Amino acid sequence: MLRMGNRDSALNLPQLNSDYDPENGLTLNGYHIPPEIIVEILQKLAPQYLLTARLVWKEWNELVIHVLYNNYNRKFEKQHTLETLPFDLCYFTQFSKRLNKNLLKNVNGQNGFKHWNIISNGGDGIVIESCPVGSDSLPSNVEEFNSHTSCFVTSYGLAHKVQEIAVSKDKYLSHIINKFKPDIYASEWVAARFDCGARYIMNIQIVCQGGRYITEKRITHEEEQWQGSKWSKKEIIIQEYPDDVDTIVFEHYGQDRQFWKGHYGMKMAGAVVKLLLDTVKL
């Protein structure tokens, strides 16, 4: 709750000359508007409109900066100011919806194979099960599933599927990655059938402009026959990568270990690639 006129409130408003002055930006149509009221209004605006509001007056610029940093600190549980956190990082993390979300799409196969490139489709081919068959159901209340229950399922021949994130085509994403170098996080949930062993590989590539340099990291996982059915989350974090990132490539592979006809191979769902913004290099 705002305490009107109290600059030492929980909002920690910047020190402004809030006295009546037609030239200080706090007087509109002859009415004096306390900075607390302006902050309340600014907090309702989308980030892109806040940039325009900065141009109204010097005092408004200071209030906009306050609102942006207050929002950032509340979201990431930090205590940053303009002196400790660059303005572009503070702003872009709120303006760009992609920076705060999973960069992969259609991760449960809810839209078929849209956004995926199938490199290898061995055995009877990779398919989508609306609900897992022969294993536990997907865990409930897992954010990356977005309430979907479907999964990708592999066969007795190796399946290899890829999704590319075009970093260089998103100016906000490219700016944050190449200037501040946050850790890049990848994960996926996997499960085998209860009656068939299975193997899985997740591989992440960070490709520079022109493909001249690649950082790569992978994780492998195998389930023995009669030991599967439970879903587990596999994770990778890439902390070091070169400048001028062009593309992030997410790859996963799966197949069964008994070479049974049909779809007894590894099941995969809820793949994630995202930036860990609280790890940025300042």
Largest sheet geometry? 5 strands, antiparallel
Order of helices and strands: EEHHHHEEEEHEEEEEE
Sheet/helix structural class:
alpha+beta
Strand order in the largest sheet? 3-6-11-8-9
**pLDDT under 50 segments (min length 5)?**
1-10
> How many distinct helices?
5
Distance between the termini: 33 Å
> What is the residue-averaged pLDDT?
88
| Count of domains | 2
CATH class identity of the largest domain: Mainly Beta
In CATH terms, the superfamily of the largest domain is Galactose-binding domain-like
CATH fold label of the largest domain: Jelly Rolls
Q: What Rg is obtained from the alpha carbons, in whole angstroms?
A: 25 Å
What is the name of the CATH architecture of the largest domain?
A: Sandwich
- Approximate shape: elongated
> Would you report the number of β strands?
12
**Estimated share of beta-strand residues:** 25-35%
User: Share of helix among residues?
Assistant: 10-25%
Pfam family, one: FBA
GO molecular function: ubiquitin protein ligase activity
Domain FBA: 92-277
GO biological process, one term: glycoprotein catabolic process
What does this structure look like?
- One of its GO terms (biological process) is glycoprotein catabolic process.
- Residues 27-79 form the F-box domain.
- One of its GO terms (molecular function) is ubiquitin protein ligase activity.
- This is F-box domain-containing protein.
- The chain has 2 domains: 27-95, no CATH class; 99-279, Galactose-binding domain-like (Jelly Rolls).
- It is 19% helix and 29% strand.
- The protein has 5 helices and 12 strands.
- The strands form 3 sheets. The chain has a 5-stranded antiparallel β-sheet with strand order 3-6-11-8-9, with helices on one face.
- Helix 1 packs across helix 3, helix 2 (47-53) packs antiparallel against helix 3 (58-76) and helix 3 crosses helix 4.
- It is elongated and about 80 Å long.
- The model is unreliable at 1-10 (pLDDT under 50).
